[in-house]
Write a structure and sequence with these properties.
Shape: elongated
Number of helices: 9
Order of helices and strands: HHEEEEEEEHEHHHHEEHH
Mean pLDDT: 76
Structural class: alpha+beta
Helix content: 40-55%
Largest sheet: 6 strands, mixed
Strand content: 15-25%
Radius of gyration: 22 Å
Strand order of the largest sheet: 1-2-3-5-6-8
């Protein structure tokens, strides 16, 4: 539980899913100076753990727009409370006592740790894949929306990222070891290489498909003639891993 609280993105994901009011795919970093604030349109979101004196402390940046909505998430162990504030009626520093929060806050269900961990994993992957060219093409916020919405399977061969993670986490044969440290997560492929990075021209692809796909062959022809062989390769590797694991059990 403590590790989840160290990274606010995990907790914010719980607010997004459990409140039913904010979509986690719309979360973006506000800026580099305030990495623990998220913004969704005109809504600003922040969480805080309860302190030793049983209070919650929030510091509100002075440059927040007055017409914004602020959502505060207050965490006490597995309990999560939500308090909404209007930006025009908020002071620079807010302190809540636990007794006050229990009366005025909206209590949400217990934290779903598996959901939080999955959100955190996806967010880390998105940050890793967001380079300058992709940010210039998509725009930062649109890139995060696009990435969270994508089914995490290779566009060409269909291998799931979850299976890739398991395969590489358990080690791969020495003669096929990936020296470039690629393969564990799906990569971003431009369907038309001459076009920009944008929604409609980008797909998620496994390391093998992304490495094999070239300008010479169209995406449709690659899926029809080449991807089936790569699908067979991954299926054999994943099936072999599953059989080995079952034998161990």
């Amino acid at each position: 539980m403590a590790s989840l609280k160290d990274f606010s993105g995990r907790t914010l994901a719980t607010i997004a899913y459990k409140s039913g009011e904010i979509n986690d795919r719309d979360f973006v970093w506000l800026d580099d100076k305030k990495p623990d604030w998220f913004v969704d349109g005109n809504t600003y979101i922040k969480t805080a753990d309860i302190r030793a004196d049983r209070t919650y402390h929030f510091t509100i940046p002075s440059d927040f727009p007055k017409n914004c909505e602020i959502i505060l998430g207050l965490i006490d162990g597995d309990d999560l409370y939500i308090i909404k504030k209007n930006g025009s009626k908020i002071s620079k520093e807010i302190i809540y006592k636990l007794e006050e929060v229990e009366k005025i806050g909206k209590k949400l269900p217990k934290l779903d740790l598996a959901m939080c961990e999955n959100y955190d994993k996806t967010l880390r992957s998105a940050n890793k894949l967001l380079n300058e060219a992709r940010e210039n093409g998509f725009g930062r916020q649109e890139f995060f929306k696009w990435y969270f919405a994508k089914d995490k399977k290779c566009y060409y061969c269909g291998v799931a990222e979850e299976d890739l993670c398991c395969y590489f986490d358990e080690g791969i044969p020495e003669d096929s070891e990936n020296k470039r440290n690629r393969g564990k997560i799906l990569e971003i492929e431009k369907v038309k290489s001459t076009d920009t990075y944008r929604d409609g021209n980008c797909e998620l692809a496994c390391y093998i498909c992304n490495n094999a796909k070239s300008d010479f062959i169209s995406a449709a022809d690659f899926k029809k003639y080449i991807a089936p062989g790569i699908t067979n390769f991954w299926n054999s590797k994943i099936l072999k891993r599953q059989k080995n694991n079952s034998n161990l059990n």
